[in-house]
Amino acid sequence: MLISPAYAQAAGGAGGADMLTSFLPLILIFVVFYFLLIRPQQKKQKEHKAMLAAVRRGDKIVTAGGLIGTVAKVIGDDELSVEIAEGVKVKVARGMVSTVLSKTEPAKGDDKDEDDAKEAEETKKD
């Protein structure tokens, strides 16, 4: 006879170790996805949110639609008035600002850090 008989294999006693080894590749894939995709995306989103919060009058920006202009006025927490040409102003949602090309120097009295530094110096003198 050319065919050898097949016998049933004995059942494994430890099911926990098999379960761990079967889930180990899935766990490793999730860890790799976290460090290569999820974490950098969260960091980039945090930086973009900080950039949007720091937009002020005089900054040159690019909108999500590709318009390049200068912030003429900060209307509110979520709205800007942007001058895209001489005498042409449009309202833009703050969230639609994709990048800030150039920042302007803060106007005197606008910068909170300068005020805090002055207060700290005054308290040291007293």
Automatic annotation (TrEMBL):
Fetch the InterPro entries from UniProt: Preprotein_translocase_YajC
GO annotation terms (biological process): protein transport
**Could you name the Gene Ontology cellular component terms for this entry?**
plasma membrane
Region entry Disordered, spans:
102-126
Q: How does it sit in the membrane?
A: Single-pass membrane protein
Q: Which keywords appear in this protein's UniProt record, sorted alphabetically?
A: Cell membrane, Membrane, Protein transport, Translocation, Transmembrane, Transmembrane helix, Transport
Q: Does the keyword Transport apply?
A: yes
Record has ATP-binding as a keyword = no
Residue ranges annotated as transmembrane are 20-38
Per the entry, what this protein does is: The SecYEG-SecDF-YajC-YidC holo-translocon (HTL) protein secretase/insertase is a supercomplex required for protein secretion, insertion of proteins into membranes, and assembly of membrane protein complexes. While the SecYEG complex is essential for assembly of a number of proteins and complexes, the SecDF-YajC-YidC subcomplex facilitates these functions.
How does this protein assemble?
Part of the SecDF-YidC-YajC translocase complex. The SecDF-YidC-YajC translocase forms a supercomplex with SecYEG, called the holo-translocon (HTL).
Family per similarity comment: Belongs to the YajC family.
Q: What is this protein called?
A: Sec translocon accessory complex subunit YajC
Native source species:
Thalassospira xianhensis MCCC 1A02616
